[in-house]
Write the structure tokens for this entry.
Amino acid sequence: KAGVTQTPRYLIKTRGQQVTLSCSPISGHRSVSWYQQTPGQGLQFLFEYFSETQRNKGNFPGRFSGRQFSNSRSEMNVSTLELGDSALYLCASSLGGTGDTEAFFGQGTRLTVV
Amino acid sequence: DAKTTQPTSMDCAEGRAANLPCNHSTISGNEYVYWYRQIHSQGPQYIIHGLKNNETNEMASLIITEDRKSSTLILPHATLRDTAVYYCIVRVAAIYSGYALNFGKGTSLLVTP
């Protein structure tokens, strides 16, 4: 079956702009979570959505937001981009209904803010 | 979720077993041990997870001590393709619990010819 698909794979934006990233989970998966990876901070959890509701949130400013649609596809948005937002953004999907399960990650979106 | 401690880096010769340790001394009774790995610039890949019993799948074995305060991931016959950063993660896995992984720094495993 198809894996987790993230689009676009690469993105260059200018400081102050906003950006929207997309994630299509594995069919049947209802949980989608987002992570930011930078060389300095490593992999950090942003937020998780389950059945169109945000279920968990990491320690990121309000400029970072997300949503999930009825088909479980998810988007994350970063407004007023800063240079420090340059990172690899990863999306993961899991079944979400039972606790003892694994998450499957996409290949990520590489965002560069100039 | 409980914190984990892993060595920063390890080496392993190709064809030998790679044993990656993880300390999770504050683990709670309802927390599972998960292992993921990340090959350079790719998304993390799930390897294995367990609660208290040892587990084995096609990729690896997970050995959890009886007191559950530490575990070891074993790659039985390491190949060059196993060179990656390995993350040991502890998370509560209750029904309908959220899925938020705390990756930490992980162990950088280098498999050499």
Notes: The longest strand of chain A covers residues 42-50. Chain A has a mean pLDDT of 93. The interface with chain B takes residues 4, 31, 33, 35, 42-45, 48, 50, 55-56, 58, 88, 90, 92, 94, 96-108 of chain A (CB under 8 Å). Residues 28 and 95 of chain A are 7 Å apart (CA to CA).
